Amino acid sequence: MAYLLQVDFKMEGPYGEEMSKGFVELAQSINDEPGMIWKIWTEDAAAKEAGGIYLFETKETAQAYLEMHSARLTSFGIQDIRGKIFEINEPLSMINHGPIKNK
Amino acid sequence: MAYLLQVDFKMEGPYGEEMSKGFVELAQSINDEPGMIWKIWTEDAAAKEAGGIYLFETKETAQAYLEMHSARLTSFGIQDIRGKIFEINEPLSMINHGPIKNK
């Protein structure tokens, strides 16, 4: 069963195109993280908030990533980091076409 | 461009199998909501927290759903509802295999 990691935080920037350009290498490195299946990068420039929604193979890999990523975000000067790891209700998510399968 | 809706809240239950059975009709009705592309149902029985991650076709449909859903959750006696609508950074999400396409 896959686990969902939900992260959001306050951030001054960059947003939009500048964000897309600035974090290419970081995004590529995230593909190499143990257990990572996919990530959706989220942003709200008006509210100065950003984050990510991730699918991980196990709770342990999601937890390890959250700890590493929180430390990295803090090193960027980012505060108010909110990270939650959830189980996924598979039968209900399947009804709603949720993309929860590993492949 | 699709928008991501992130919702979480405190809930006494039901969780797990009981949740799967109890919310089938609600899940089916969510497929009929304007602009809804998919939903992943999230739950954490230990923390007594649940929620959903949704993809919507537009910001307006995500906003309308959030308002309706928040009122519905409140009518269920659910409190501390936290809903956020984010833009999606498409280039970075594509690098990380994010399931952000409408089809």
Architecture blueprint of SSEs:
The structure is a homodimer of 103-residue chains.
Chain A lengths: L2 E8 L5 H7 L1 H7 L5 E9 L4 E8 L2 H17 L6 E7 L1 H6 L8
Antiparallel strand pairs in A: 1-3, 1-4, 2-3
Tell me about this structure.
The structure is a homodimer of 103-residue chains. By secondary structure, the first copy, chain A, is an alpha+beta fold. Chain A has a single domain (3-95), classed as Alpha-Beta Plaits. Helix content of chain A is 36%, strand content 31%. Chain A has four helices and four strands; from the N terminus they run E-H-H-E-E-H-E-H. Chain A has helices at 16-22, 24-30, 59-75, 90-95; strands at residues 3-10, 36-44, 49-56, 82-88. The longest helix of chain A has 17 residues, at 59-75. Chain A is globular, with a radius of gyration of 14 Å. Chains A and B meet through strand 1, helix 1, helix 2, strand 2 and strand 3 of A and strand 1, helix 1, helix 2, strand 2 and strand 3 of B. Strand 2 (36-44) of chain A pairs antiparallel with strand 4 (82-88) of chain B.
